[in-house]
Write a structure and sequence with these properties.
Two copies of one chain form a homodimer.
Chain A lengths: L21 H14 L8 E2 L1 H8 L3 H13 L3 E4 L3 E4 L4 H20 L4 H19 L3 H17 L4 H18 L5 H5 L2 H13 L3 H24 L4
Antiparallel strand pairs in A: 1-3, 2-3
Helix pairs in contact in A: 1-3, 2-3, 4-6, 4-10, 5-6, 5-9, 6-7, 9-10
Chain A binds a DNA duplex (21 and 21 nucleotides) through helix 3.
DNA sequence: GCATATTTGTCCGTATGTATA
DNA sequence: CTATACATACGGACAAATATG
C-alpha cells in the first residue's frame, strides 16, 4: 500500500544504492506529512489505525517510528504511544542557538564552493517564486538557502544535522499565522548575504546573517508563545 | 534477558521520565559494545544469532537496529543485514570539519558557564587519571572536555549531535595502535585552552583548539589509512 | 551457471501490562 | 473500581533476496 515498491534495483546516481525498505518508506511518508503540517503537533499516531491505513504491519510501523523519534519529529511516551512533537519556546531558542553558531561560522570561514552555488540557486528560486506569488515555494527556497549556507562549511554530517533541524523548525512554522509573511522579507536579505559572501566579505556576510537569525527567532518565538502576552 | 528491567516507575532525577523500552535497552547495550570496540568495525549483526543471544524477539532487535542506524553506528545493507560501521578517511575528515567549526566557534563566542565547568572538571579528571596511569580514563576525560567545549555554545541539540559524533569517532579510535599515546599529549593543551577561555581570551583559546583538532585529525587519519603509505 | 541453504523482510496472531473513561 | 482500549513484546510463518556448494 504505502507506495509502489520501486521496481527492482534502483541504482540511481548518487549515494543511494539501496532500495528503501518499507519502514524507510513509511518514515518518509510520515515525515513529509509532519513537515507539511498535515499531521499537526500533538497528534497521536495510533499504531493500529495507522498500520491499517497505510497497509503495513504494526512491526514495520514501529520501525518507522524509531526512525522519526531519532529525528525528533515524534516523541515516544511509554505505554501511551507516539505523538507528533510539539515545540515550545525553549526548543525554538535552542534551534536558533544551533543555527547561529553553525551558519555564521560557516560563512565566516568558507570552505566549499558547492555551498555558494546552492545559495545562488536558492536565491534565484526564491525570487522567481515570489514573482509568481508562490509563497510556499518561497519558504522552500529560504530553507534551501540556509542549507546552502551550512554546506559552505563542507561537512556532509553537518549538512544532515541542519536538514534535521529545519524539519523540526517546520513544526513551528506551522504555528505562524501568515506563513507567507514569514519568509518574504528575507528574500532581499538572502540576496545581500550571498553577494557579500561571493565578494569575499565573509565577516560582513556573517554579521548580516546573524541579524537575519535573530529576527527570525523572534518571529517564531512570538508565534509559538501564541496570542497570549 | 538483555538487562534486568528497571523495577517500575524509574522517576529518577533529570529529564528521563520514561522507563526505557526493550528496544532502547538493546540499543544501549549494543551501542556500548560498539564504542568499546568489542564489536569491531565491519562485524555483521545477524538477527537470529543476536536475538537469541540477547533473549529478545527479532522484531524488537530490528527496532534497536533502526535506532543505531540513525546514530550512524550501524549501516544497513538491504537483504544482507546490518553491520558495524567502518569509517574511512573521508568520514574522519568530515567529522573533524564538523568539530572544528562547532568547537572553535563555541569557544570564540562563549554563551554558557555550564560548559566551562564541564571543561574544568574534565581537565581535573584527566590529570588525575594520568597520574594513576589510567589511560583509558584519560581518553574518556578528553572526550568529556570537548563535549564541554561544545556545551559552551549553550544548545542542547548541539551537545547531543556532538556526543553522537564522538561515538562515531570511537570507531576510529579503535584503529589507533597505542590508544594511550593518542590522548595523553593533549592533557596539557586542554588545560591551556581552559585557562585562556576562563581568562576571557576567547580568540586565543579558539586558535589553540584549532591546532589541537588539526593534530588529532592527522593522527586518526594516519591510523585509519593503516600501515600503508 | 545452477540448485540449495541461509538470512532478511514482512506479516499475523496473541498474551501481558499500562493508562484512561 | 471495573472495563476498555492500546501499547509492548513475543513467536511463528512465508516470500524474496542473497550466499554457498
Amino acid at each position: 500500500m504505502v507506495a509502489p515498491p520501486p521496481t527492482s534495483a534502483t541504482i540511481l546516481g548518487g549515494v543511494q544504492l539501496q532500495r528503501p525498505t518499507t519502514a524507510q518508506r513509511v518514515a518518509e511518508l510520515l515525515r513529509e506529512r509532519i513537515v507539511q503540517g498535515e499531521l499537526s503537533s500533538g497528534t497521536q499516531c495510533a499504531e493500529l489505525q495507522l498500520s491499517t491505513a497505510l497497509g503495513v504491519s504494526r512491526n514495520t510501523l514501529r520501525e518507522a517510528f524509531q526512525i522519526l523519534v531519532g529525528e525528533h519529529l515524534l516523541v515516544h511516551e511509554p505505554h501511551r504511544g507516539v505523538f507528533v512533537r510539539r515545540l515550545d519556546v525553549d526548543d525554538v531558542r535552542d534551534i536558533y542557538t544551533f543555527r547561529r553558531l553553525v551558519e555564521c561560522a560557516a560563512l565566516a570561514h568558507p570552505a566549499s564552493a558547492r555551498g555558494l552555488a546552492e545559495m545562488r540557486a536558492a536565491v534565484a528560486q526564491g525570487m522567481d517564486a515570489a514573482a509568481r506569488e508562490a509563497w510556499h515555494e518561497v519558504g522552500t527556497a529560504d530553507v534551501r538557502f540556509h542549507v546552502g549556507v551550512t554546506a559552505v562549511a563542507g561537512s556532509e554530517r553537518l549538512d544532515q544535522a541542519m536538514r534535521g533541524l529545519f524539519a523540526e523548525l517546520r513544526l513551528a512554522f506551522a504555528l505562524v499565522p501568515d506563513a507567507h509573511e514569514l519568509h518574504r522579507p528575507f528574500l532581499d536579505l538572502n540576496a545581500e548575504i550571498l553577494e557579500l559572501a561571493e565578494r569575499g566579505q565573509a565577516d560582513r556576510a556573517s554579521l548580516l546573517l546573524r541579524r537575519y537569525l535573530d529576527d527570525a527567532e523572534a518571529r517564531i518565538v512570538a508565534a509559538v508563545q501564541g496570542p497570549s502576552s
